Predict the 3D structure of the following.
Amino acid sequence: MKLLQLEAPGRAVWKDAPCPTPAFGEVLLRVEAIATCPHWDLHLFGGKPMFPGMTLTYPYLAGQPGHEAVGEVVALGPGVSRLQVGDRVAPWRDTGRPRQGFYAQYNTFHEEDLLVVPRTLAAAELASLELAMCVEVSFQQLQALGGVAGRSLGLSGLGPAGLVAVQLARFHGATDVVGLDPVASRRELAERLGAHRTLAPDASTWPASRRADALDDAIDLTGVPVSIEFLMDRTRRCVALFGVLREEVRFGSRHLFGPGLHLMGYGDHNRLAAETALRAITEGHLRLAPLITHTLPLSRYAEGVERLRTKEAIKVLFLPWGE
């Protein structure tokens, strides 16, 4: 088989490798397609750690950072009981264990971390199930405060996660979904996917106030303090954090009263969130294919990452069996 390996920053090699053998509780997948996770791809291909304190060594783990995938079960390891040969599956979480990733023609994965997905849907609608699960976790967090049904919800950052959040907000009953992003084309796509309205995050046109014209709740999908603080100054109840936070955020006295603002961290990846996201997909409430703006053979990985870097692409779908 062939797989991708990041041998050095800016250098990806499409090379021959032995086909892996499934261990106890694992299955072997013939990989159909893999979607980029832009933050992972841009950071690791650029030689930068994804998380603060993360140590990078190259060559990086073979097949990584590919984790948003869809494929077919072609062999079972010992102890497998939930899946069968021929099942079409998608990984619902990346456990973080050091192992081969899905930027490959074949990969092994633990059956507990896979969900059976319909054959009737295109790969572009299913490969990013893991992303949808991640975003659904933030809605689980807000559910602890009563959920978003019947409420206004602001979403800052209309990249892939934000565009998923727009659709999940509607799925969960938010009645005023407001998308915030400086890029006009992404605001337009968010409106096509269900945002009631979109705005550029501009303090001069939307003055800070947690009373007049304020959002009920918000989710920040950028991890950038200026974005989070913009929401905090315009949200009544809660700002939930989804984006990777690398700097400190300022919580001041203006957030303490009237009523006090909740600043909520992220929760744990879980199977219920994945099953909820998959239900939203299969029922037609969540469309992932519009996030895929380019489809390329996996051998052209560097080209795909460059399209992400220049924001020409939102997500790229790689085909490991293409030329």
The mean pLDDT is 96. The chain is about 25% helix and 25% strand. The two ends are 14 Å apart (CA to CA).
